[in-house]
Amino acid sequence: MYYVFIGKKQFLLLATDYANADAYSRRLSVREEHLTRARVAKEKGFIIAGGAILAPELNVEGSAEGTMVGSLIIFEAENEEQIRKEIEQDPYVINKVWERYEIWPFKM
């Protein structure tokens, strides 16, 4: 038996933060705005899951888990371009938190 999936596909976004001295403070300054957008996208089914990538060896401001140094997000979208359009409007891109990101086809 063969299955044909029509419509939306899953994609994984892997983003890494800038590594300069004020990168972490930039992340924190726009984090709530970024998370608000992410919650809305999750409610609409555009985001499946996501979270911060942690560097345990970097311990800024007493974080027991480690410092946030990037993000991983799983999307469900028609195509990669739909994701890129949204990401380019994200506060982490606009405010130079994410230095670079990659989008990969993905399957959960």
Automatic annotation (TrEMBL):
Residues 15-107 form the YCII-related domain. It holds the Pfam family YCII. SUPFAM superfamilies: Dimeric alpha+beta barrel. Signal peptide: none annotated. It comes from the Eukaryota. This is YCII-related domain-containing protein. It comes from Glomus cerebriforme.
